[in-house]
Structures are given as C-alpha cells and as structure tokens.
TrEMBL record:
Pfam families: DUF2061. It comes from the Bacteria. Residues 83-107 are annotated as: Disordered. InterPro entries: DUF2061_membrane. The lineage of its organism: Bacteria, Pseudomonadati, Pseudomonadota, Alphaproteobacteria, Caulobacterales. Residues 14-64 form the DUF2061 domain. This is DUF2061 domain-containing protein.
Length: 107
C-alpha cells in the first residue's frame, strides 16, 4: 500500500515545482506543434507554469487535511480492530471514523 504521513509545506512546494517543470516542457512542445510559433508556445507554457504550481500546492495542502486513507489513520483503525476483537460486544452506535466516513481536519 502506498500510504504516507503528512508532508511539510516546503516538500509540497518543491514537489509542485519539479512536477510543473516537466509539465511545462510538455505544454511547450504541444503548444509549438499546434501553433508552429515559439513565442506563442513559450507564452502558453510560462503562464501555465505559475498557475499550475499554485493549484498543485493548494491541492496538496487540502488533501493533507483529509484524514481518510492516511497511514496514521489506517494504523489506528487496525489497532482498534484488534482491541475490539478481545473486548466485550461493541455497542450498536459507531463513531463516524469507525464507520469509514470521510473526516476533514479543521484548518
């Protein structure tokens, strides 16, 4: 399973920049093939680079706040399951997290 712990803001930012460099090269090449003009291709790739870096960064930070599927949550759920296996019968009411509901941490 490919689960990971929350990341530092600096790591998310560096990942965003490296991904955008690769993506912008792709955008430049495609734009050049479509327009046939280097100036247009460079303009499109330049604008796209900055907008996509910011979008990716905020997207990563938003997902960092979602607890669903994170390794620390999965481990806690596994621990809870092993504890309930040896505990008396559980009550019918389950918490939102135990039921698998999507729980978002406040900002």
């Amino acid at each position: 399973m490919f689960l990971r712990a929350p990341e530092a803001h600096s790591r998310s930012f560096v990942k965003a920049v490296s991904w955008r460099v690769l993506g912008s090269i792709d955008t430049f090449v495609i734009s050049y093939f479509i327009t046939g003009k280097l100036v247009f291709a460079a303009s499109i790739a330049s604008v796209e680079t900055f907008t996509k870096i910011m979008l990716f960064y905020f997207h990563e930070q938003a997902w960092a706040r979602v607890r669903w599927g994170r390794s620390d949550q999965v481990l806690a759920a596994e621990d809870a399951k092993s504890e309930t296996a040896h505990a008396p019968a559980a009550t019918p009411a389950a918490s939102a997290e135990q039921a698998g509901a999507l729980v978002v941490e406040p900002a």
